[in-house]
Amino acid sequence: MSQFVRALGMMSGTSMDGIDLAVIETDGKAVVRTGATAFRPYKEAERSAIRAALADARHVATRSDRTEAMREAEELVTSAHVEIVRDFQTRFRDDVLPLDVIGFHGQTVFHDPSRRLTIQLGNADRLARENGVPVVTDLRIADVEAGGEGAPLVPVYHRAMAQSACRDLPLAIVNIGGVANITWIGSAENNLVAFDTGPGNALIDDCVHRRTGAEMDRGGALAAMGVVDEGLVATWLANPYFERMPPKSLDRDAFTCTGAEKLTLEDSCATLTAFTAASIAKGISVLKGGVKQLIVVGGGAHNPVLMAMLEHRCRIPVLTGDAIGWDPDFVEAQAFAYLAVRSLKGLPITFPGTTGAPEPLTAGRLARP
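^ thats the sequence. predicted structure below, dont judge the formating
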């Protein structure tokens, strides 16, 4: 295999907003050149199918089990990925072809490392066959089966980004998707700590969807009009998860946040947003190496109310990824392209400090066209 690989990464996160695509060229180590990106929103029928699959997936015994709702969602998710890859290759032909590999995350519908079970929907064999490109998938499985958390997977890419950007260390990067996770990068080689800090956007999105039918509190507009119920935030922060030391990870629906339903929509959004910010701040407080700066990527970076709450609660400089030349919307998609290349080269993608794996582990299954 040549030193540099052109890879397409695909990410459909727990926020269920749609599919992110990003091309990178990399040696699988520190050198990363980013390229074209695209986003394909999920249709409402697709989101509804995924929500039904989320409910069913909590009751299955193995990752290969499929209820009728899960099979329907998997078919729709796969078709959406096939469609957007085909469109992407057509639109960006001169910039992205030929592709050497696709990194395919799939749609997570259940994640419980205590049961050594993580379920992502999506047919990688069909994706490879219909798009004519090898696909690396199942990137969480080996770690979970070895007793690791299977998440977060992005830290090794965060480290490559920080090295490429020559950022001062120690540095913390927070990705705020459906769930929020943090990567701490120390100055020593392989000095990585990562874990899910708590909720990201999922609780806010679900609240808005239940009450209005909209998909999110866009730009934090509703939260900006509300008042935070600090008593509820303190109650939710008493959840035992926040006392566990990392590595640790979460399912999308790990928190119920009882009491939010009694607030007005605006106050509920403000309070749930504050809970996300407070749980991230609590996560930062357990990092023993200190943090000079917090860089935020993911959908949460577009919520100015959340960003202001983070700065207030963390008491350190908070920047969005775009402020330093990163595209916060596509870091995870780029990461899965990067992880696919590392998988092909037999390089580790999870580590004791990021997932609790017993040793650095590579992972992934290769589906050929």
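The longest strand covers residues 101-112.
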